[in-house]
Amino acid sequence: MKPRITLITLGVDDLEAAVRFYRDGLGLKTAGIVGKEFEYGAVAFFDLQAGLKLALWPRASLAHDSGLPLSRPGPSGFALAHNVASRTEVDAVMKQAQQAGATVVKPAQETFYGGYAGYFQDPDQHLWEVAWNPQMIPAEE
Amino acid sequence: MKPRITLITLGVDDLEAAVRFYRDGLGLKTAGIVGKEFEYGAVAFFDLQAGLKLALWPRASLAHDSGLPLSRPGPSGFALAHNVASRTEVDAVMKQAQQAGATVVKPAQETFYGGYAGYFQDPDQHLWEVAWNPQMIPAEE
Fold first, then answer.
1. Cα dihedral sign, B70-A114-A79-B91
2. Nearest to B42 by CA among B55, B53, B24
3. Confidence of residue A141 (pLDDT cuts 50, 70, 90)
4. A49 closest CB neighbour out of B3, B77, B80
5. For residue B47, what pLDDT is reported?
6. Tens of pLDDT, residues B49-89
7. Looking at per-residue confidence, does B79 or A113 come out higher?
8. Number of helices (H) and strands (E), helices first, in chain A?
9. Most C-beta atoms within 10 A of its C-beta, which of A10, A69, B101, B140?
10. If we measure between CA atoms, which residue out of B67, B62, B23, B72 comes closest to residue B41?
11. Could you tell me if A120 and A130 are in contact, meaning their C-beta atoms sit under 8 angstroms apart?
């Protein structure tokens, strides 16, 4: 196996609402919902950094395709981190998420590793961390 | 918010077992468990493509840090996709995962979008898809 993740798929309850959150609320770019011509095919892709996309797909479709039972999210089962270049940017992204309808789980604050971070949940309870970590500053594109 | 995910954190029950699965079983590279000097700090990072890391962190630590209740995973709540360059490579990675102790959820087969893919769960029930998608062939490093 190569060290590569191509796609992160988040199961959602309401695809159109989830697209509005990520596209209109967080400002991520998408061509919108595609694949409607297939049963269980409707999905929205968002381009992230090169080689990585985020996909929103109804939970029912992911359950159908994988064969797993339909399940509610385990809110503390995983997290996606969005590292930024400054504390100020952490505050700005947390505010943007809140205004977009996210649930602020933990307001931005100092972290045990000497950084500054907060957590929010998207409308489907998927957990995001917004972090400034002096040891993990992202390269700006 | 910039279109960027820096870190994908998977909550695990047994950190050492999870490291063995990803490092020894799947062959991903890690410096091993670090951060043991902090309460709730023990974590293992795996480098993926540039700008992206996978982190294994005990569920209890993720729950503690985020303030969310400790929860079991929702098995069909999200998926990580590992896209590869050929059908043969799908078969090889699915076999590697199975030998590493993964649960094969759906053996590799033709997909509705004209690709070839299978699903497995890691020891903590996190869902992975191994896919050859003619419209999403990864650039080889």
1. negative
2. B55
3. low
4. B3
5. 95
6. 989 999 999 999 999 999 999 987 777 799 999 999 999 99
7. B79
8. 3, 8
9. A10
10. B62
11. yes
For residue A86, count CB atoms less than 10 angstroms from its CB and return exposed for 0-12, middle for 13-18, buried for 19 or more: exposed
The length of chain A in residues reads 141
Secondary structure letter of residue B84 according to DSSP: -
CA angle A109, B51, B71 (to 5 degrees): 50
A7/B8 Cβ within 8 A: no
Dig out the tokens for A41 from the structure.
């095919």
Q: Are A51 and A6 in contact (CB under 8 A)?
A: yes
Residue of chain B minimizing CA distance to A68: B76
| pTM for the structure as a whole | 0.95
Interface contact flag, A78 B126, Cβ < 8 Å: yes
Q: Nearest by CB to A68, which of B48, B50, B75?
A: B75
